[in-house]
Amino acid sequence: MASLKLALLLAGLLAPLPGAAQVLGSDAAACVRRDQPAIQVSVLGLKDQTGNLKLELFPATEDDFLKDDRDLIAEGKFFHRVRVPTPPAGPVTLCIKAPAPGRYALFVTHDRDNKNKFNVWTDGAGLPANQRIGRAKPKLSQAIVDVPRGVSLVTVRLQYLRGFIPSFGPVDD
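Above: the chain's sequence. Below: its structure in token form.
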């Protein structure tokens, strides 16, 4: 019976339980099945529920973190991205597959203006360490996620530019 419910849920024929966050993204099945390396990300602190959310998974090295995806792919390195429209209401949980168990760097962005290019003045960003980003480029150490054979659960609080001397920080602090 449980496998039938899972099949219906994956096919979109059965709604998730009321109050439960639906896992979103093209990789959502990996987090629901829990049978392959993946990261399930609960996204908190959205400034609003507009635009798109994007998860990006990089190799966990200083040289590769936040490097252009075309360069990583041309160099034969791993890179994976999941992009979804921001749901109009409710909790947000996203999923991204990893190629194998191991250490990766995860970066989450909220593309509020829907232009598919990070706008420092309007868009938000977050990392698994949930440390204040400030005014500098995020550090690799803030982005590290260890992925097991199954699913790693991570919570990321988004940060937006704010303050008299602008720097990135959570909306609610």
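The first strand starts at residue 23 and ends at 24.
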